[in-house]
Each structure stands twice: as structure tokens, then as C-alpha cells.
Amino acid sequence: MMTNATLTLEGGPELSGEIVDTGADYIRIRATTEMTQEQMAQYAGGLIEIDGKMQKVMLESAIPVPDDEEVIELTMRRFTPSA
What we know:
By secondary structure, the chain is mostly beta strands. The chain has one helix at residues 37-40; strands spanning 4-9, 14-22, 26-32, 45-50, 53-65, 68-78. The longest helix has 4 residues, at 37-40.
């Protein structure tokens, strides 16, 4: 089962999507959006909510999914929570 996530970009829109991969310091989601890759590049980061937990993330890349023009794959780096 895919886990859903909600990404709120700093000063930008909220995107919902499914997590496709996670690691110790990164999260990759596929989100449906009408924004282009160039528009996504304007945003540096935001907050992502996964299972009710909020994490601050930095947007690393936004790559359109070839088979679906409304879906973009976002790779984000997690900020280490401050102690």
C-alpha cells in the first residue's frame, strides 16, 4: 500500500501525492500538479506531512513523469530536526 503525503511549499501551493521511496535523508513522492518543472524550481523547500508528522524538507529535484503530464516526481532532502 502506498503512503500518501502532503507537501506545503514555502510561499507556494500545497501538493498531495504518494511516497515512492524514502531513505535516511530523502523522500521521493509523485504528486499531481498543473505546475511545470520550471515553476517548481522556484521553490526551495517546505513542510511535508506523512502519517500526521510534519518534517521540514528542501526540494532537490522536480522531474515530470513521462507517461503522465500532470504528475511530477519530487525528491526532497530532510532537514535534521533541531535538538
